[in-house]
Amino acid sequence: MTPTLSTQTVVAVIGAGAMGAGIAQVAAVAGHSVKLLDLRPDAAALAIDSIRAQLEKMAAKGKISPQAAEAASARLQIAGQLADLADAGLVVEAIVENLQAKQKLFAELEALVSEDCILASNTSSMSITAIGAALKHPQRLAGLHFFNPAPLMALVEVVSGLATDPAVANTLLATAAAWGKTPVHARSTPGFIVNRVARPYYAEALRVLQEGGADCATLDACLREAGGFRMGPFELMDLIGHDVNFAVTRSVWSAFFNDPRFLPSLIQQELVDAGYLGKKTGRGFYSYQEGAARPLPATEPAQPFAHDVVVYGLAPAVRALVSRLSAQGRSFTQVMAPQGDTVATAGGATLRVTDGRSATRCAFDTKTPNTVLIDLALDYAKATRLAVSVAAQCDPAAASKVIGLLQAARFGVSLLQDIPGLIVMRTVAMLANEAADAVNQGVCDVAAVDTAMQLGVNYPCGPLAWANAVGLKQISSVLGHLAQTYGEDRYRTSPLIQQLVYAAKAF
Ligand code: NAI
């Protein structure tokens, strides 16, 4: 038996801004009578007009039937005051992100609605436990965190505070599912799932930029074309707005008592100080002025294909190289037996996948001066670009041979400065590390974190499934080497990853 709220349940939405309007639309389409309330005069009426226009558009495009659009429109009502919400069975709050305002509203509501009315907050950063502290019956309050735009985004985080009754969370989960969403349970901790686990996507790129690893356009291109992310971190931050993104970063960092994992970047601080807030102000990492050309990623000029190419073993990068070189009619030698973690050799240079050491250190440790490292790709068979780094000891002529080998396999090659873990590998390792800690600390389960990151921020793969595919030993080695290089607690390996590696298990 799923404890879904029936469509007879009146849903009240408080706050008719971007989120409240979207949530009201979702609930009305799902069959509920919806009452929309806002402090600002006319805000609810304007929101309902715009929802009705949306519904008409959806009907015109055949996404819902005209009858369904009309029925949903008819189910939307303006509420003039709080007392009008007394018959609601579910209240979703989407007002200003301010703890006192939310506490005050819920305390007033509690006196009005029936005992079994569920109270939900769409907050993206406030503690559900703290909001609930103002209630006589905090067990009836949970987070119901939609993503923007609510009608289009499938993910909903159902967030339990310390006092939340599990039955309330389960009812919200089943109801969100009945509304066509994909809900996941989360415990109320800073950033819940998505806003916490996504931090390294920005933080690692900012760190690499700060260390001069490459420019924004190159790093964005590597994360898109090798990592399979829909947008690179810099273009995404420009779109979100640096004021918003920096505020979320700061709030998660301070909510975790300044844990260095979440340390904000001075680069972001500077952009905010300068008023370069991204697309909305015409300038961020990139310029959005009229006629401004987007800088191209750095791509190595074509190098000749060597005649002594040998590939080793059956690792994913090797298998992709074999098929891509064969597809181009290139001749090379294939040795099935793995030779350590060497992917290929050409012109006296050795190519390996990064394990979190710099190429220079790897060359030193392995006594192989001519070492070139390649980055992680989501799928080496499909990637159109790969980042590489070259050891300081490497003969440039030898390096050009392995670069020519990658180019012959139709990879655009971006040469990064020799920073440890390159860009895709260190980003994915840190995303998996954060996801693992969220699981280890009981915030959510493995399936929830992977679902949340795919649906909430469009990642091409859940971070834990991705870590499994790369191999937890490799991920742990990347994290361990980053920790050694930087000596920072930021790169400490999640105890859960360590346990799984020792147990030879996966997530
Ligand atoms: P918004 O600023 O577009 O809308 C907030 C609305 O609430 C305004 O219309 C305002 O007049 C009204 N309001 C403020 N105090 C009120 C009160 N005491 N009673 C009734 N109405 C009141 O804000 P937005 O973006 O819709 O965000 C609302 C909530 O949703 C916040 O808690 C925010 O953190 C959260 N959220 C926002 C997301 C986003 O991408 N914008 C995503 C997920 C959650």
What does this entry look like structurally?
The protein is α/β, with parallel strands linked by helices. It folds into 3 domains: 11-188, NAD(P)-binding Rossmann-like Domain (Rossmann fold, 3-Layer(aba) Sandwich), CATH 3.40.50.720; 196-281, N-(1-d-carboxylethyl)-l-norvaline Dehydrogenase, domain 2, CATH 1.10.1040.50; 310-415, Transcription Regulator spoIIAA (2-Layer Sandwich). It contains 20 helices and 15 strands. The chain has helices spanning 18-29, 43-60, 66-74, 99-110, 128-132, 166-178, 194-197, 199-210, 216-225, 233-240, 242-255, 266-274, 316-327, 359-366, 396-408, 424-440, 446-456, 463-470, 472-486, 495-502, and strands at 11-14, 34-37, 76-78, 90-93, 118-121, 141-146, 155-160, 182-187, 310-312, 333-335, 342-346, 349-353, 371-374, 385-390, 412-415. Strands 3-2-1-4-5-6-7-8 form an 8-stranded mixed beta sheet. Strand 11 and strand 12 (349-353) form a beta hairpin. Helix 18 packs across helix 19. The longest helix has 18 residues, at 43-60. It is elongated and about 80 Å long. The protein binds 1,4-dihydronicotinamide adenine dinucleotide. 1,4-dihydronicotinamide adenine dinucleotide (NAI) binds at residues 14-20, 37-40, 43, 94-97, 101, 105, 122-124, 146-148.
Number of domains: 3
Number of helices: 20
Please give the CATH class of the largest domain.
Answer: Alpha Beta
Mean pLDDT: 97
Please estimate the helix content.
Answer: 40-55%
